[in-house]
Write a structure and sequence with these properties.
Elements lengths: L1 E5 L10 H9 L4 E8 L14 E6 L8 H22 L3 E4 L2 H6 L1 H7 L4 E5 L8 H13 L2 E4 L2 H4 L1
Length: 153
């Protein structure tokens, strides 16, 4: 099976990725890992079992206004969609609710029932439209994992 782990930050900030990588690579799958290099520094974390790393390199500061992040999010979305088209993955593992929302149409139409959603931490779930959209995304997922104790509560 050809699987893409969709990360939204650097590998160092995806501590739960190793859980997926260990489980998926030990079963003979071809696992690809996408991460967003926002600070332009090289990421020292690499797992030898990963078939291919896909780095989306675009500077994006965390502390800027949300509205200024939209163009970067749209470029990230385009990169992911091109990557999916190029490699024809069987399963996606989406490592946060923000990329899940950005990729909502891809998940709904092309990967319905063929993706895993991982909640790492709370973002905009207090905002009712966001919460509703994430609920709809979660309902179409093969599995939903909650890695955040705060979100479980």
């Amino acid at each position: 099976m050809k699987i893409l782990l969709v990360g939204f930050t650097t590998l160092a900030r995806m501590p739960y990725a190793n859980l997926y990588l260990d489980a998926l690579t030990n079963t003979g799958n071809e696992v690809h890992l996408l991460y967003w290099n926002r600070d332009g520094k090289s990421d020292p974390l690499h797992v030898t079992a990963v078939h291919s790393y896909h780095e989306f390199r675009l500077p994006q500061e965390d502390q800027v206004a949300r509205i200024t992040k939209i163009p970067g999010f749209l470029r990230y979305r385009h990169y992911v969609k091109c990557l999916v088209k190029e490699h024809d993955f069987d399963l996606l593992v989406v490592m946060h609710t923000i990329p899940a929302l950005i990729l909502w149409d891809l998940l709904r139409w092309r990967f319905s029932g063929r993706y895993i959603l991982d909640f790492r931490d709370l973002t905009f779930e207090h905002f009712p439209p966001y919460r509703t959209a994430i609920g709809a995304i979660a309902n179409r997922a093969t599995a939903v994992f909650v890695s955040s104790a705060a979100f479980r509560a």
